[in-house]
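Section 3.1: Structural characterization of target chains.
Under the original work plan, the team committed to producing a structural model for every single-chain target entering the pipeline before any wet-lab resources were allocated. The record below documents one such target. The sequence was received from the expression subgroup and is listed exactly as submitted; it comprises 149 residues.
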Amino acid sequence: MAHGGYAKRRVSEPNQAAGSSSRRSKGLRVEKKPKIVSLKNQMRSVERFLRKDLPAEVKETLKQKLEYLKKQQDDHTRLAVERKIFLRNRKIRFFERRKIERSIRRLEKLQRTSSAHVGDADIAEQLSKLKEDLEYVRFFPKNEKLCLK
């Protein structure tokens, strides 16, 4: 045999004692993590439980738990939408912010170097407008699509 696989095959040994033929040590077992139940499944189980004939105080606590789970699910979906929109608009926000910052630097340099105060008011007005635009881009809500110009 070229690879020697069959010659080295072990023959099953008869059980010497109950459970002692196991090669694994019982002390090395890893405990399983508890299964995480989704919000949707938790809500369904609470709704099913509410359909049963239960005492009033138990029903009240279950209704409160159901409201809490619904609120938690709403928060989760809202965050997912925000994340999706934020990731979609991240590049646009970055480019817009860079363009505005470049324009601000250019105008500030022009304002410093201009010895004549002829267009100084115009430059200052443009600078304030650009800084306002920069704040708009920087602090725009994450859950809304970015609309520029």
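Residues 111 and 119 are 9 Å apart (CA to CA).
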